[in-house]
Write a structure and sequence with these properties.
six-stranded mixed β-sheet, mainly beta, 53% strand, 3% helix
């Protein structure tokens, strides 16, 4: 079902308008959808202000206890946030496709251009590559989404930041056991233990663990995932607070890869037959721990410290034929790397050091050491899907040391100015250990060692006007900074490290309003992002994606949101996004010496749309959600067409999908039982869930699931 009602004739009049989704429904409504509460303090901007007075597009999402979903992917929780494009690839080997205001859309795996944090601990690697797989939805307290770069706060990012926070143990000890099942032999079992501190100096705790597996919607898309999360919290008598978190995730996932348009139309569930021989798959193992400590020294001064460390191992088998690997400089068809990373963030906050001011000064340090190897994906007999001979061996390191400063001045009763400054510097070094020389220069594999440094002085400024206690407006400017990841630098035209790749920088402007009154909660904003040296595709070289810089790109648009508690436990929410993302300057062709008729990368005319970005998005939901008893909800999501490559040669069509859910919550003494049933894609729309941007083989399309269901229950016992 394609709903023509969502062609939005108002899109041009809304261009330049942006609205922050603040689905600030009352906590007691028990909505199955995210609940944004403007009355609580916003943490992501570090300015200690309420949502209504925060000069940014920031959204605080409170996932309700009665979520009525499986609880595996952030797509289940972050519905309807304007400017945030979050697509489920139905491919657990490549993670979700996530972009904010068009930044990060080019990523074919993981998350780029957006900083991710779990309990104050970075879930984004120091090089800017992140993943959502280690976020435990079972123990989430809330999520905050910051639109726009605000690199003065978080450094290396252009699109924004997503901060997830786990619950803190409270009250009596309890145990929760849950199980969900669904289409395609989907199963998830989880256990949550929690309890508050019994005595002074003792911690409260939340311990959760879950197991998930599925056969997958498509051929060769099965996955297994084990996720565990522990959080201990100490509230000490001197006013200080300590959080210790430990997180582990283990994923084994098959990769069905993309389809051409013809293959999608013929059978969206298929894997391309000849690709089956490669047994494309990925194995991920990650453990991360961190500690945060905050202490008020007095009424004016407070100090904060964070330290973290982690280890990540990835083995990925790709579908690169052995003929492509004949080049002696080819890195092979199996990627195998291990990363050790750690860092710290130290800062001081002073209130009223000068009248009506707040200052924050800090220093952030991150370090990553990577052992990256490449192997042939075939054995001596020509069988694919196995680890063969070594073809790449290198040690990569990255570090940054960023000092930063923030200030907020309430210079008039209704006027506040906020400013930030950060010196971001990123240092890359690669030591090549796979060096081979031959009498024939065409068979050499030389030393690809090298290093490079990137640095930028980042600044932001915002002005807020509280026109009435229920209505505020703001205007802001921020400098964005996004360095290449190791994966983007890993391959160049000569198969060595691409140290010529430059970081992207952006100038970002935003004008917004926020209102909270009897008519509900409403936000609107307009934004423009002008980017220099944007990182874009440089074509595929022997099966490897390579990257280059585009002189200028432009992103501008609008975001709107509204929500209201209509009557008793009946609530409504709606949001709309408009993003016009284009190349703002001509990008020349990259020739292919071996075949002049097929360039490595096509020329990109000025005005072409940046691929992977939907121009229009809309979301609406209606829910009846009391604390106990029967609950139900329905939601509708619209996504505009999405171009698949820089040439705009094809696009995934627009679509509209509808979901519905119902559940029942029963409580008795120390027991609580929750049940639910859910149906997604209710009208069985055949649509593309995500695209593989600039795929070198033209297999751009990753089909979404048809009509699918899930059902589950949980039992909680308080001791």
């Amino acid at each position: 079902m394609q709903c023509k009602a969502f062609n939005f004739p108002i899109q041009m009049t809304l261009l330049g308008l942006t609205a922050s989704i603040c689905q600030c429904l009352y906590a007691e409504t028990g909505s199955t959808e995210p609940v944004l509460l403007p009355t609580i303090q916003i943490e992501v901007t570090r300015t200690d202000t309420a949502w209504l007075n925060t000069p940014a597009s920031v959204y605080r999402i409170e996932p309700d206890k009665n979520q009525n979903n499986v609880g595996v992917n952030l797509t289940e929780t972050l519905k309807g946030v304007p400017g945030l494009q979050l697509n489920n690839r139905e491919n657990y080997a490549q993670d979700l496709q996530l972009s904010m205001r068009g930044f990060g859309a080019r990523s074919t795996f993981g998350v780029r251009g957006i900083r991710l944090y779990v309990d104050g601990i970075p879930a984004t690697m120091p090089d800017g590559q992140g993943q959502t797989s280690n976020i435990d939805l079972s123990s989430l307290s809330h999520i905050e989404v910051l639109g726009g770069p605000f690199s003065s706060l978080y450094g290396n990012s252009s699109g924004g930041a997503i901060l997830t926070t786990s619950k803190e143990g409270s009250g009596q000890d309890s145990i929760e056991l849950g199980y969900s099942a669904g289409s395609h032999n989907k199963n998830r079992a989880d256990v949550i233990l929690q309890g508050g501190a019994k005595n002074a100096g003792e911690p409260s705790y939340v311990v959760s663990s879950s197991y998930f597996d599925t056969d997958g919607y498509r051929e060769h898309s099965a996955a297994q995932k084990v996720l565990s999360n522990t959080k201990l919290t100490w509230d000490l008598e001197d006013g200080s607070k300590i959080n210790w978190v430990l997180n582990h995730v283990d994923i084994h996932a098959d990769d069905p890869q993309g389809l051409t348009r013809e293959q999608w139309k013929a059978n969206p569930k298929q894997q391309v037959p000849f690709l089956k021989q490669f047994d494309v798959r990925k194995e991920i193992n990650q453990t991360q721990t961190g500690l945060t400590w905050s202490k008020p020294l007095n009424d004016q001064h407070e100090i904060y410290a964070m330290a973290y460390a982690g280890q990540r191992e990835v083995t990925q088998y790709q579908s690169i034929p052995n003929t492509a690997q004949a080049n002696p400089r080819h890195a092979g068809g199996v990627i195998d790397f291990s990363r050790d990373y750690y860092g710290t963030d130290l800062r001081w906050t002073g209130k009223d050091v000068l009248p009506n001011t707040r200052f924050t000064a800090g220093l952030a340090f991150d370090f990553m050491d990577e052992e990256r190897k490449g192997f042939e994906n075939f054995d001596a007999n020509g069988n694919y899907g196995v680890k063969g001979d070594l073809r790449r061996d290198e040690n990569n390191t990255l570090w940054n040391l960023d000092p930063y400063l923030q200030a907020s001045w309430n210079f008039l009763p209704a006027w506040t100015v906020d400013a930030g400054l950060r010196y971001s510097n990123v240092h890359y070094q690669s030591k090549d250990h796979y060096i081979k020389f031959d009498a024939d220069p065409n068979k050499n594999n030389g030393d690809d060692s090298g290093k490079t440094n990137y640095s930028k002085l980042l600044h932001s400024v915002a002005l807020t006007w509280e026109m009435t206690p229920e209505f505020t407006s703001y205007i802001s400017y921020a400098k964005g900074f996004e360095t290449p990841t190791f994966t983007e630098m890993a391959y160049s035209a000569n198969d060595g490290m691409n140290f010529n790749l430059q970081p992207a920088s952006s100038d970002n402007y935003e004008l917004g309003i926020k209102a909270q009154n009897v008519w509900g909660n409403f936000t609107a904003a307009i934004f423009q992002s002008k980017t220099q040296n944007d990182i874009v595709s440089a074509g595929t070289e022997n099966g490897r994606a390579t990257f280059r810089n585009a002189d200028r790109t432009l992103r501008e648009g609008a975001e709107l949101s509204w929500n209201k508690a209509l009557w008793r436990d009946l609530t409504a929410q709606a949001s709309y996004s408009y993003i016009d993302a284009t190349f703002d300057a001509f990008v020349p062709e990259i020739a292919n010496p071996s075949d002049p008729t097929k360039p490595k990368a096509v020329a990109i005319p000025s005005g072409n749309s940046i691929p992977g970005i939907a121009k229009n998005q809309a979301f609406a939901t209606l829910g009846w959600q009391p604390e106990t008893g029967f609950n139900a909800g329905v939601d509708v999501r619209y996504m505009d067409k999405v171009y698949v490559d820089d040439a705009n040669s094809d696009a995934a069509p627009s679509y509209t999908v509808v979901s519905a859910n119902a559940g029942y919550v029963w409580t008795q003494a120390d027991w609580k039982v929750r049940t639910y049933v859910r149906a997604d894609n209710l009208f069985d729309e055949n649509y593309i869930g995500s695209v593989i941007v600039n795929d070198g083989n033209g297999r751009f399309f990753e089909p979404a699931d048809g009509m699918n269901w899930s059902a589950g229950f949980s039992v909680t016992k308080v001791f």
